[in-house]
Amino acid sequence: MDAREHLDKANELKLEGNDSFKASKWNEALVSYRTALSHLPPRNQSAKPELDQADIDSAGPAGDPSVAAVSDIPNALDAECAKARAVLHANIGACLSKLEDHKGVVDACSQALSDDPHYVKALQRRATSNEKIGTWSSLTSAQEDYKLLVELLPPGSAELTRTRKVLQSLEPRTRAAQEKETAEMMDKLKGLGNTILGNFGLSTDNFKFEPNGQGGYSMNFSQ
User: Does pTM top 0.85 for this prediction?
Assistant: First the structure.
């Protein structure tokens, strides 16, 4: 089976996955998409095509690493593989979202975006899942994705309006998460410090930490 035949086979599996997804059979769809991915050659970092968008995307067929190294695949075929790879990873992300595996969604969509950094559906899915994870780092990542989406979405579109509203609402959430996680970290450090300083008749209460106005803290010793 040559590279083109492997691409066609992977596309067939992808379409099976789409049918399963439409029937709300998320796990069956995952199996189809992941099997299709097994036919893809390794990622060629130079091939990053733009994709048409759809809820469950059906662009492009795929290939198989056993067929040939990426350097041996003609450029046009390699671009098809990159396109198919991005679509399959994004579709996996859609399935994992239905299964509420939000960390899995982030990982799958990050894989899709490695092939196409401007893949709107992958950006939207990753941002939404990072919102639901809700940590400081995940909310910061969601902000970055939404900022890029603001640049990519059509002017005047409903999606652009919604994205701007979500981005605006994320600012206080991200700040609150930062403050909460910073406080938790300081509490843990204080506990560790008390364990060590207790050997010298001291505690962290002898050390005062105050914001220095530059995003950090100044420490003062008192008895």
Answer: no
